[in-house]
Specification:
3 domains, 14 helices, alpha+beta, single chain, Nucleoside Triphosphate Pyrophosphohydrolase, Phosphorylase Kinase, domain 1, Aminoglycoside 3'-phosphotransferase, Chain: A, domain 2
Length: 464
């Protein structure tokens, strides 16, 4: 596999001594280095996915470790090589280390030749700012131990289920995900920052409102923004080769959206339904506001456009400025179809839909908002078009069928295709206005703004 693997991942860890201001380094020929591992793979894995990294580092050092956070990554496109650096926490003895590893006082770091040099830069920057991380709970030492106590308490009712293991699956400023194994069952624990707390109330609402559309919840702690849910199995929609599964997933998602416009096929006060979603904490991103938000972004928030590897060029910024009148016109045209705002998942793709006992479970609602319903299918269709490009129309038809109570099929198709032209703008503004402003590690999400604006330019050009 090493000769043909598509990606190479080099992962380094900053490991601080539990009780002293020292960092773990390993001796190498000609200098010192942070503990690091490297592997090759055919499948891409995000910097957020840390289960394998934890296992590899534990095997390298023969200690128990967890990941606190990723500080950043560099990517060489020519070789498809990812270099990532993480902060890690030690959970076992700090004395029984490999012979080539030792603890170095942080005041003496400049006396050691650390390679590569970029790692020393990352290390010094993190040491200078680490006291600022206190607002993110899972960046704190001992957070994992406290989370384990809460999990054990949640599993003690109605009858005790002793823990067998807890595995860290993913970590970012946007949340921390753990897989919990007992003797008989598996669960997932999720902790969220305050700006995503609406996922907790929304999941409870959806679990009551339409059973079998979201994972079954075991416990929810709204004060600490965390939940425990049953494992819903390992089969996600992207693993299904049956197009009927994909069609049914979209049909049921449309019904879920419509359920928040009307009840039992009876049209009710739409404003009351929107108010209910707002009371659950769902933010609004109205269609009519998108052009003005884009204009403000282009003139006063340009750091979101340029300070990222996916940065826009000056020419692309000029084209977006020039396209503003067209974008305003298209938004007005889409609004003219009269489709009500409703629940929009924000990240609806095949890996966020699980197949479980005949149910289709929609999970990871952190990016959800109240918006034009048809924007939801933008990421979903990106998934499918690479796999089954000829299936797009059949999937569109499956999704639109429940919407026929609002308009004729021909009008729905027109509105849908128009919405797909504008959907990249919606997603870019979702990131730029509802998520990134709350984040300290803006790099984790910032690439999504220019990336989606580039897609917007392409779709405006292709259609025009």
């Amino acid at each position: 596999m090493a000769d043909s693997a598509r990606y190479t991942f080099n992962m380094a860890g900053i490991i601080m001594h539990p009780g002293e201001k020292r960092v773990l380094l390993r001796a190498v020929q000609g200098g010192w280095m942070l503990p690091q591992v490297e592997w090759q793979a055919d499948e891409y894995s995000s910097w957020k996915e840390v289960a394998r990294f934890n296992r590899e580092m534990q095997g390298l050092l023969d200690v128990c470790l967890s990941t606190v956070r990723c500080l950043g990554e560099d990517f060489e496109r020519a070789t498809m090589h990812f270099s990532r650096i993480y902060v890690m926490e030690l959970h076992s003895s700090y004395d029984n280390l490999p012979a080539d590893a030792c603890w170095i006082d942080i005041e003496d770091l400049k006396e050691f030749m650390i390679t590569p040099e970029e790692h020393l830069v990352w290390l010094e920057e993190w040491l200078a700012k680490r006291d600022e991380e206190e607002r993110t709970p899972w960046y704190h030492p001992d957070w994992l131990a406290k989370a384990k106590v809460w999990i054990e308490q949640a599993l003690a009712e109605p009858e005790a289920q002793p823990l067998v293991s807890i595995e860290q699956v993913g970590v970012a400023e946007r949340g921390c995900l753990l897989r919990v194994q007992t003797k008989e069952n598996a669960f997932y624990f999720k902790a969220l920052p305050a700006f995503f707390r609406h996922e907790l109330t929304l999941l409870q609402h959806l679990a009551r409102y339409r059973v079998g559309c979201v994972p079954a919840l075991v416990a929810v702690d709204e004060r600490e923004h965390r939940l425990l849910m049953h494992d819903f199995g390992s089969k996600h929609l992207d693993q299904s080769l049956d197009l009927a599964d994909w069609q049914e997933a979209l049909r049921r998602y449309a019904i879920l959206q419509i359920d928040h416009i009307q009840i039992d096929h009876i049209q009710i006060d739409h404003s009351a339904q929107v108010e209910q979603l707002e009371e659950l904490g769902c933010p609004r991103l109205p269609l009519a506001t998108l052009p003005d938000q884009l204009e403000r972004l282009l003139t006063s928030e340009q750091s979101l456009l340029f300070d990222t590897p996916t940065a826009l060029s000056l020419e692309q910024v000029r084209r977006l400025h020039d396209a503003l009148p067209l974008i305003r016109s298209l938004c007005q045209e889409l609004a003219g179809y009269g489709l009500p705002e409703t629940l929009e998942h924000g990240d609806l793709h095949a890996q966020n839909i699980a197949l479980s006992g005949g149910d289709y479970l929609y999970f990871d609602w952190t990016d959800s908002c109240i918006a034009h319903p048809f924007f939801s299918l933008y990421p979903f269709l990106l998934d499918i078009e690479a796999r089954w490009p000829e299936a797009r129309i059949r999937l569109r038809e499956a999704y639109l069928q429940p919407w026929e109570r609002y308009a004729a099929r021909a009008q729905l198709v027109e509105a849908f295709e128009l919405a797909q032209r504008l959907a990249p703008l919606h997603l870019a503004m979702l990131y730029a206005t509802l998520i990134i402003p709350h984040m300290k590690a803006r790099w984790e999400m910032q690439h999504g703004v220019p990336l989606n604006l580039k897609v917007l330019l392409d779709r405006l050009h292709d259609a025009g």
